[in-house]
Amino acid sequence: MAQGPPPPPPPPPPPTNAPPSGDKSQKTSDIIGTFRPTKLFKLSKPDTYVTSLDFDNEGQLLIAACSDDSLQLYSARDGAHQKTLLSQKYGCHLARFSHQSSSIIYASTKGEDAIRYLSTHDNSYIRYFKGHSAPVTDLAPCPKDDTFLSCSADNTVRLWNLKSQYAQARLNLATPYLAAYDPSATVIAIASASTSSILLYDIRNFDKPPFATFDMRQFDPPVAPGSSGIPEWSKLEFSNDGKSLLVTTNHSQGHLLLDAFNGELKAQLPRPYQPTWGILRSAPSPTPSRTPGGQGDTSFTADGRYVIGGSGADKDVVVWDTQAHLSKEGERKVIRPICSLPCDKGKGAVVLWNHRFNMMATADTEVIMWLPDEHVGMKPLQ
User: Fold this and answer.
1) Residue 378 predicted with pLDDT over 90
2) Rounded to the nearest 5°, which phi and psi values hold at 217?
3) Non-local CB neighbours of 209 within 8 Å, separated by 6+ positions
4) Which residue, 314, 292, 310, 285, is CA-closest to 361?
């Protein structure tokens, strides 16, 4: 009697010490308070800082730009360091994946202010994007195609396509240090720090005036003696549903959660601790800073409901629920953090959510990957 084919071999075991990938079928609201550090990666030297983090489109890879002019590539899926890419001649900051996981763009920090397009497969440059005459302060890849925006201290915002070394369009604005695409990739927001305003443009009419301007002056804190008076905004981000716009700040009053359609303040998201000098990364500014640069210490979760961010003092990460009850503190509408995610390893100076899996990463002088732990409960703030 004929026998059927032998059964297939069992799947290989997972890599040793690798964290399981976050189950993307779990509802964020069910697990948001259970995230705990799972893997820690030390950098080459104790005084080396991570200045930016980015996950690729599939959520499988994580790239970190570091102050020692290196780019560190990690497998988020396996919880493993893959390779080191050196940029010692040009420096590196604001590393961002293109739509191909094997290539990134990043800003130069030495010698010139070009943007570099790098193949991570063989560490070779594909193209340079030259035109800025001062440091690049933000890079915003388009979520739909191969275009991206660059902001610079030369008071310009430029629109590029990865296929060409020449900018497709240019805006001349006062201190346009931050930019973000909305999820539909039809609207871009540009934060002009010196004018305390956020400008919204239709990407199809990039060379036309903004169709909306949000005046943020009423939310500026008092100007400290000797400061430039420019708001310390460090990141601009739309929620995935396109309804909210988050302005990450270094101010003690916290971050600003705006209605993305009319610019009205939904709430301020204060940190639980008063930030002190050296805890937070410097925000883009016309004057040099003594603290390392960064890309902001907050991130929306994939569902757009929660904001995760640095606590301002200790090593924990905190969580704000944007649907939580508003409290009135004087004239301010405030949402306080709902819980703390404990970490005794390092500060969350750079914080990023993985929008493909229930996973997040934080960094300072090391890179930490976080996953939900079903065996712990939510830690309330002390």
Assistant:
1) no
2) -60, -30
3) none
4) 310
